[in-house]
Design brief:
heterotrimer; A mainly alpha (about 450); B alpha+beta (about 575); C mainly alpha (about 350); B: about 575 residues; alpha+beta; 6-stranded mixed beta sheet; about 30% helix; about 20% strand; disordered N terminus; C: mainly alpha; MetI-like fold
Chain lengths: ~450, ~575, ~350
């Protein structure tokens, strides 16, 4: 081997061939593949988000995974909710001064006064020109007016149902533009500016009501929690979607990676051994694969879930245990083809031992399809986990994964399409990136398919 | 994609991603933005008195949520098969189209195979006079012998009828069924057919709800010849013989059941709908989608809270009353548990804000309970109310020796079966009791069959429960808490309560009987092992083109009353 | 070759028997009682009919189902302890296993535990739908995937290649339970071209087949392209070209065989995946097929139905795998099984 440290003299154009390993060579090629690098970037970004979930939840979105803000319909992206764990306090000044909030002046802030204070807040947010009235444009841009139109129906002619929960004959409809001047006043805005429900207001009250007298006194009053924007809207239980999506990244990616690792280890060893040894051993090993193939895994999962509970570790093992079968088959197929090739004979002539042949020669050369299949296994496993969650058997509440979110999203598809779109997009983008990456790796590693 | 020097590729890849997100977003935005201009659409449909629901279906179409377990009326227990059986068969009496505005339970029933009936003075003997023109779908007449045969079949020991207890109000029936003899004596049972058009039934007690019971599918006649000839296969579409307004035209597993009007039905001239399709759709989200696509005239099954955004403001939405109560069972069998103390139980009940639960957690879909027996029961009103009073609750708890300054309460488990609705309720109650009483509850969620097991074996502290009434009489709700009743499952036993129930059973005077039952309910609510939470409602979508589909608190809707205005 | 087939047939039967045994054991071991209903008075009767209080095998550690208190408890033949383990034995004829196999040999899969119809009847009414769905999806997958892959493989590194492969990438990355609802939302609810669920005419199977098949179309396209790339570099292709054969002849006669090799070996897992995917698609589109039947039965603890569908799936898969292996030898003569 030529000493890579030797330098050429100035002027002489001797090209030194620097020996590289298979892997360095491959990595160099990978770097040139822009799609694969883009994929790698996206996956890394997702992984960072997943790892950074605690920070994101407490400082960026300010919602925790499971806090519910029930509101009949899921709120669209851009609407607001009041966080209950990571809230920031709005100081008791201006419109939030004690005397302004305590409208009946009895020295205590009650539940309904808390509700009113938040309605004022929301009204102020929607009323962008600050004139105390909502014109048509401001109404249209209000996040809750983007909610299912039947919920805030037809305010093009300024009508809001007073109690939308009542059956049609009982609904008293009143004009929200009472004096037909083209503007909506605070009192008429109804559900459009509702931010908290009665029980939520009570919960907020309880948090600050130190002496449990069902009211906040002046001494106890330190301001109110600031509402935060639900950047991707909420799901049907009022939980912030973005927070859940990031958490879902954690679970989906973890399940994908770990289960794939399991299947990889088992599948490759099994398949390569079977393929190489051939004959009876191959027969038996593949018979076992066949038996396991014919067993639909749903029963296994259901049984495991009902006996041991829906444990996430069980899911890792179970999902990994299904995927190794195909890996073993493919590897075995490859090995069978490769077995006849010359370099194996050559290795045997030299006297390499059987495990040596399997692990040092066959597997690296079969690596192309192994890597391709691995990078296609990760998304496949993620899909399977999502499929289980879709049927209600996978990740259980309070944990969530992208698949579980997609399944929830499907139920409210007609009125809240953002749920399934967000989770579907997250899944699709991640899977695509993984696939691009896998392709790039395959092209980089497969020595036969060179550009030259 | 080897050696990607071409920048086009990455751009193309990025474009694909954007395309995907964009397409999805477009679909979503299309919904949001498009819907605002489609306000005209919703205004239009709101203004229109005609519904377009069902316009794409070839005939009257509605949904059941599962395949019928059987078509044999003696063996069925569930709602899907019940709904269909009510169209195919007819009993001595027939439920009327509605329960609204009726105060007298006697007005709930109409003549069926029996054109009239007499009740003896002591209220224990019913004589039914069958009509002459009642026929089976094969033309043969329906006679009293058919009823005797059918009821005897159910009461045959070892016959797998899950609702056989319905017949135990008849004298001698329970003994006959549970007899260990080889040949129990049928003569001891109070069912007689003196002639082909008369049926005499003797009851153990004056049972004022017997007319309603008779209209239940367990009491329907089955065709003797057909059953004897085909055995278990008698219900196949090619063999089945029915006596109701409709015949079974076809049945495709998991897909649909088709009904057609029976020409041999005695009242066929008043039956308007000629053909009906019953689609089998277990996924309720698919049901609302199908309704919106104008494929259904009626959703048939009740819609759950999780779907509320899809139907709550649909112009065809209807909230009908339902005779059912959602409550908590309390296990009082453990002497050391605080729950054995009635004051503790009442404290928990007082600490429950039902209104806020229903409004906030269940979006107002149901009715907060103010008693145990549902409000919509004709001819009965509860005298004891349950209320929300956190202060009083705390006092009671203190009086029992727990709470502030007293013994610490151990952690109690709350059992519910896996369902999102139940989970929401459980979590809300957990918060309420914690903040109102400082009680710690651990939520335990089990799958349905295991949940049933646990309830049966008293393996719980507090459990979620629900009960839909079988007939319009308080006894259906109160009877099960008798000492040792199979559905009691709480270990509670009160001699006073049992005595009151017994007294009610033997009381022939309606007004007095109601008073006795009110007393019994009072004991149950104040002392008993239950905490009522809300009354069920039936949330459905019904096309405004249908006449005759009126609110019925037992969700019994017969196609023979309905007509479509096209 | 025929010796090989016969050997494999025997092997397949053995495999099936193993699966049946395992499946029976697993379904019976689950801890809930399918005969328990909220208002049942006939639990004991139900248990007796399905023999749920009997052991599954002649030697067992405990009776799988605790008999409900009031029922007649069944007695084992003998019991004894080996250390901490308590063992009971029973006669073969009393076991659930015997009962089930006996039933099977008489051509019956038993009765459903939820409805009063036989498993065989329900399965046979559901099977045509699933078969049609699966075949249509496979058709979609092959019809789109193979030509696309061949096309891309032949025009490697051109725009045609890149765009085709990118589309394939998108297809592989959208889950079918996201695609399905989106298609319903757009084509059925908004545009009204299709019905949102149910299966009355062939038109209703279009959206489901696309939903199920699109993923595999994309996957097959990638596989075919990969196969084509491998083959096109082989010496014998160079020879063929050197000989002066037209490109058409080269591709169709020589290259295609090698190119579709990976697709053929994928057919086995593909059908398995299609069967699994059909569960979701049938659930979303409410199709009366085997997949939905299986899910409902599993969730309702209808063990006979679950067992019946397992047997059905297993039979299909095992024999299909055999077929695929045979096909593989036909296509790649290098592979030698004997």
């Amino acid at each position: 081997m030529i000493d890579p440290q030797t330098k050429e003299d100035g002027g002489a154009a001797t090209q030194l061939v620097v020996g590289t390993s298979l892997w360095k060579d491959a990595f160099r090629r990978l770097r040139k593949n822009r799609a694969a690098m883009a994929g790698l970037l996206v996956v890394t970004f997702m992984a960072i988000c997943a790892l950074g979930y605690p920070v994101i939840s407490s400082s960026i979105t300010r919602f925790s995974l499971d806090e519910q803000h029930l509101f009949v319909v899921p709120k669209p992206p851009g609407s607001r909710s009041v966080p209950s764990t990571y809230y920031k306090l709005m100081p008791p000044v201006g419109p939030l001064a004690f005397d302004n909030v305590d409208t009946d002046g009895d020295g205590f802030i009650s539940e309904s006064e808390v509700e009113q204070a938040y309605r004022q807040y929301e009204f102020a947010q929607i009323d962008t020109d600050g004139d105390g009235l909502l014109n048509y444009e401001e109404y249209v841009n209000a996040p809750l007016s983007l909610a299912p139109p039947e919920f805030i129906p037809n305010c093009a002619s300024w009508q809001i149902a007073k109690r939308s929960m009542a059956p049609p004959e009982d609904r008293s409809v009143f004009e929200c533009d009472a004096n037909a001047d083209g503007m909506m006043e605070f009192e008429q805005a109804g559900k459009l500016i509702a931010l908290v429900s009665a029980s939520e207001a009570r919960n907020i009250l309880n948090r600050f009501d130190g002496d449990s007298d069902l009211g906040i006194s002046k001494q106890e009053y330190v301001g109110l929690p600031r509402p935060e924007i639900n950047r991707l809207g909420t799901d049907k239980l009022g939980r912030d979607l973005l927070t859940r999506l990031v958490f879902g990244a954690r679970i989906s990616l973890a399940v994908g990676l770990l289960a794939t690792l399991v299947s990889l280890l088992i599948g490759v060893s099994w398949g390569a051994t079977a393929g190489f040894l051939g004959g009876k051993v191959d027969n038996i090993m593949m018979r076992i694969v066949d038996v396991m193939y014919g067993m639909p895994f749903m029963i296994l999962i259901i049984l495991l879930v009902s006996v041991f509970g829906s444990d996430i570790v069980i899911l890792f093992v179970a999902l990994g245990a299904i995927q190794w079968l195909t890996m073993a088959r493919i590897v075995r197929g490859q090995v069978i083809s490769l077995k006849e090739q010359e370099f194996v004979e050559a290795a045997r002539c030299i006297g390499v031992s059987t495990p040596g042949i399997i692990f040092k020669h066959l597997i690296p050369n079969a690596l192309g399809p192994i890597i391709v299949y691995t990078t296609l296994t990760v998304p496949a496993v993620m899909l399977e986990e999502a499929f289980l969650s879709f049927l209600g058997l996978g990740i259980q509440a309070p944990l969530t994964s992208w698949g579980a979110l997609a399944s929830e999203g499907r139920q409210v598809m007609g009125t809240a399409p953002w749920v399934i779109i967000a989770s579907g997009a997250a899944l699709a983008i991640t899977l695509m990136s993984l696939n691009f990456l896998g392709d790039g790796l395959r092209d980089a590693l497969d020595p036969q398919v060179r550009k030259d | 994609m080897i050696g990607l020097r071409n920048t086009h590729t990455r751009a193309r890849a990025g474009l694909a991603v954007l395309l995907l997100v964009g397409l999805g977003g477009l679909l979503g935005c299309d919904k949001k933005g498009g819907e605002k201009t489609a306000d005209e659409g919703s205004a239009k449909s709101a203004a229109a008195s005609q519904s377009s629901a069902g316009s794409k279906a070839p005939n009257f179409t509605f949904v059941v949520a599962a395949d019928p377990e059987t078509f044999d009326t003696a063996k069925m227990t569930g709602a899907p098969e019940g709904r269909i059986a009510m169209q195919l068969f007819e009993g001595l009496l027939v439920p009327g189209p509605t329960t609204e505005g009726l105060d007298d339970p006697a007005k709930l029933m109409r003549p069926g195979v029996a054109k009239s009936y007499d009740i003896s003075d002591d209220g224990k003997t019913y004589t039914f006079h069958l009509r002459d023109d009642a026929k089976w779908s094969n033309g043969e007449p329906v006679t009293s012998a058919d009823f005797v045969y059918s009821w005897k079949r159910i009461l045959t020991p070892d016959f797998p009828a899950d609702y056989d207890s319905m017949l135990f109000v008849i004298k001698g029936a329970e003994n006959y069924k549970k007899s260990k003899d080889d040949a129990p004596d049928w003569e001891t049972v109070g069912i007689r057919a003196p002639d082909a058009h008369t049926l005499v039934v003797e009851l153990i007690n004056p049972t004022p709800y017997f007319p309603e019971l008779i209209a239940f599918y367990t009491f329907f006649p089955v065709p003797e010849k057909t059953v004897e000839e085909f055995g278990n296969d008698w219900t196949r579409p090619e063999n089945i013989v029915t006596n109701g307004a409709y015949e079974l035209a076809s049945y495709v597993d998991q897909k649909e059941i088709k009904l057609k009007k029976s020409p041999n039905y005695w009242d066929a001239k008043n039956v308007s709908i000629e053909e009906a399709t019953v689609r089998i759709i277990p996924d309720l989200n698919a049901v609302t989608n199908a309704y919106r696509a104008d494929e259904l005239h009626w959703t048939g099954t009740t819609l759950p809270v999780s779907q509320i955004a899809e139907f709550i403001t649909h112009p065809d939405y209807r909230r009908d009353p339902l005779l059912g109560v959602y409550y908590f069972r309390v296990n009082v069998s453990n002497e050391d548990s605080p729950l054995a103390n009635a004051d503790v139980r009442r404290a928990l009940s007082l600490a429950t804000d039902r209104n806020s639960l229903v409004e906030d957690v269940l979006s107002g879909l149901y009715e907060a309970a103010d008693s145990y027996v549902p409000k919509n029961m004709p001819g009965y009103e509860s005298t004891t109310k349950v209320a929300y009073d956190a202060r009083k609750a705390a006092e009671l708890l203190k009086k029992a020796g727990y709470g502030e300054g007293g013994k610490p309460l151990p952690k109690l488990t709350f059992l519910y079966n896996s369902d999102e609705n139940h989970k929401l309720v459980a979590e809300s109650i957990q918060k309420q009791w914690k903040s109102n009483l400082g009680v710690d509850i651990e939520l335990v969620n089990k799958e349905w069959k295991i949940y049933l097991d646990d309830i049966d074996n008293l393996n719980y502290d507090i459990a979620r429960a629900g009960w839909i009434g079988d007939y319009n009489d308080p006894m259906t709700f109160l009877g099960m808490f008798k000492t040792g009743d199979g559905n009691n499952d709480t270990g509670w036993s009160s001699a006073e309560y049992d005595a009151l129930l017994e007294a009610a059973n033997t009381e022939a005077d309606q007004a007095k009987r109601v008073k006795i039952l009110q007393e019994a309910e009072t004991i149950l609510v104040q002392d008993g092992p239950i905490i009522p939470i809300y009354f069920y409602t039936n949330n459905v979508l019904v096309s405004r083109d249908i006449k005759g589909l009126e609110p019925h608190n037992r969700d019994i809707h017969l196609l023979k009353y309905m007509s479509l205005s096209e | 070759m025929s010796r090989f087939i016969i050997k494999r047939l025997f092997g397949s039967v053995f495999v099936l028997l193993t699966i049946v045994t395992l499946a029976l054991w697993i379904t019976r071991m689950a801890p809930s009682n399918p005969c328990l209903k909220e208002r049942a008075t006939n639990t004991c009767g139900c248990i007796a009919v399905h023999k749920l209080d009997r052991p599954v095998f002649p030697v067992y550690l405990s009776v799988p189902l605790e008999p409900v208190a009031a029922c007649d408890a069944w007695e084992p033949v003998s019991e004894f302890s080996v250390g901490p383990v308590h063992i009971l034995t029973a006669g073969w004829g009393d076991t659930q296993y015997f009962h089930y196999v006996d039933q099977l040999l008489h051509g019956s899969l038993g009765d459903s535990m939820k409805t009063d119809r036989s498993v065989l009847e329900t399965l046979s009414s559901a099977l045509p739908y699933t078969l049609q769905l699966g075949l249509q999806a496979l058709f979609v997958a092959l019809l789109i995937g193979v030509p696309a892959g061949l096309y891309a493989g032949l025009r490697q590194n051109t725009m045609a290649d890149y765009s085709t492969m990118t589309l394939a990438m998108v297809g592989v990355s959208i889950p079918n339970f996201v695609l399905g609802p989106l298609l319903i939302m757009f084509f059925a609810l908004d545009l009204g071209w299709f019905r949102p669920n149910g299966w009355d005419s062939w038109m209703d199977s279009v959206l489901p087949s696309i939903t199920l098949g699109l993923y595999y179309a994309a996957y097959i396209a990638r596989l075919t392209r990969g196969g084509m790339l491998e083959v096109i570099r082989k010496d014998f292709i160079r020879t063929a070209r050197a000989k002066g054969l037209t490109e058409h002849a080269v591709v169709i006669t020589h290259a295609m065989r090698g190119a579709i090799l990976p697709v053929v070996s994928y057919m086995g897992p593909a059908v398995a995946a299609l069967l699994a995917g059909s569960v979701v698609v049938e659930e979303i589109f409410n199709l009366p097929g085997v997949g939905k039947l299986f899910v409902r039965a599993a969730l309702n603890r209808d063990y006979n139905m679950v067992l019946g569908t397992v047997i059905l799936y297993s039979t299909v898969l095992v024999f299909l795998n055999l077929l695929v292996d045979i096909l593989y030898t036909v296509i790649d003569p290098r592979v030698n099984y004997d």
